[in-house]
Amino acid sequence: MIYLANAFSVSMLRYPTIGELHPVTIERISAFEAGRILRENKFLSVYGHRSSAGHLVRYLHVYVPVQRDSIRLTEEDALIVARAAMNREYRSGKRKAPKWSFFRVTVNPHDES
């Protein structure tokens, strides 16, 4: 499954035992790549910020339902994180829209060795 969120949290991962490594890959991707992934695949939005979601819709050209929900990422999943940067300037009216950064988060296979 592909998920879209405004942040990544360790609570999105399987709960590891003490001392167990939980390798993930976080890759910065372009807005073009993020939009392409979301337009070409079925995804579940857990994007929780209504005020910036409208700008994100126009930026990526994809419908972004606003909903807060808990997810648990597996090795088969990808999380696209849309991070609104310079949000303080946007909220104070100094910018007309937030500036965006995009990341793809994947869970690496667990090494049993």
Report on the architecture of this protein.
This protein is α/β, with parallel strands linked by helices and 113 residues long. It has a single domain (2-14, 22-107), classed as Rossmann fold (3-Layer(aba) Sandwich), CATH 3.40.50.11170. The protein is built from 3 helices and 5 strands. Strands 2-5-4-1-3 form a 5-stranded mixed sheet. The chain is globular and about 45 Å long.
Total domain count: 1
Q: Roughly how many Å apart are the termini?
A: 27 Å
Assign the CATH superfamily: Uncharacterised protein PF08960, DUF1874
State mean pLDDT (0 to 100 scale): 86
- Whole-angstrom Rg: 15 Å
Strand content bin: 25-35%
CATH class: Alpha Beta
Spatial strand sequence of the major β-sheet:
2-5-4-1-3
Roughly how much helix do the residues carry, as a percent range? 10-25%
CATH third-tier fold name? Rossmann fold
Instruction: Report the uncertain regions.
Output: none
Helices and strands, in order, run as EEHEHEHE
At CATH level 2, the architecture is 3-Layer(aba) Sandwich
Please tally the helical runs, counting DSSP H or I stretches of 4 or more residues.
3
Report the strand count.
5
Biggest beta sheet summary: 5 strands, mixed
Q: Give the overall shape, derived from the CA principal axes.
A: globular
Which structural class best describes the helix and strand composition?
alpha/beta
